[in-house]
Design goal:
The chain is an all-beta fold and about 220 residues long. It is built from no helices and 11 strands. About 15% of the residues have low confidence.
Length: about 220
């Protein structure tokens, strides 16, 4: 009996995805996460999600996520006001470039490479899953949380108006605790790209869907 799946659709992000095919992880050994399932959230619309991600022996990361919602109405492409509404349904495919696993939870991130919604192409995807085992070993329902983020474009440079040649904003450094040799430090110019390490895994919340079936596997 496959276990049910729960999901949280964060209100601050767009809920779209790609083609619901069976997950297929690479043959290489290494930490991985994969799953394939379908679910509803009480609105009568069935959604299909499939994903896989793996950290290979050379520390490279591969994987992808697909999502479809056949009954959704995506509307007009917001990047082209003259465009006609797209066909019914939502379809998105993303490729992963980052994976972090902590116990039975995994966070994956990547870029949307295919979609019937033009505005979604190139946006960052964040997928968080929780594996709660199967059958008699199940401690609860499998869960997931995910969203799509618009890249931030910073087109200004902070400067001191009283200093004609203020170059402070161009300087780079890493702040560390000198009493802790294990402190990796905080960079002065952190990467603004949303990824699997942007937020602690413990910061994500999950809620149950009304109906769901499928399987999530997280293998540290």
């Amino acid at each position: 009996m496959r276990k049910s799946v729960s999901t949280l659709m964060m209100a601050c992000v767009i809920f779209v995805g790609g083609i619901g095919s069976a997950a297929h992880a690479p043959d290489n050994a290494g930490p991985s996460a994969n799953g394939t399932f379908q679910f509803t959230v009480g609105d009568g619309s069935v959604r299909y999600v499939s994903f896989n991600a793996r950290i290979h022996n050379d520390n490279t990361i591969t994987g992808e996520m697909t999502y479809t919602e056949p009954n959704a109405t995506p509307g007009v492409d917001t990047d082209n006001s003259d465009a006609a509404p797209t066909a019914a349904g939502i379809s998105v495919k993303a490729t992963f470039d980052c994976l972090v696993i902590n116990g039975n939870r995994a966070v994956m991130s990547g870029v949307i490479v295919e979609s019937n919604i033009g505005a979604a192409l190139g946006r960052r995807v964040l997928l968080v899953v929780e594996d709660n085992e199967q059958g008699s070993n199940a401690s609860g329902l499998d869960k997931l949380s995910w969203g799509i983020y618009t890249p931030r474009n910073i087109n200004w440079t902070p400067a001191d108006a009283e200093l004609e040649n203020d170059t402070g904003a161009s300087l780079r450094w890493i702040a560390t605790d000198s009493e802790r040799p294990d402190d990796v430090g905080i960079p002065s110019h952190p990467d603004a790209t949303i990824g699997c390490q942007s937020f602690p895994i413990s910061s994500y919340a999950f809620v149950d869907v009304q109906h769901g079936a499928g399987n999530i596997q997280v293998k540290p």
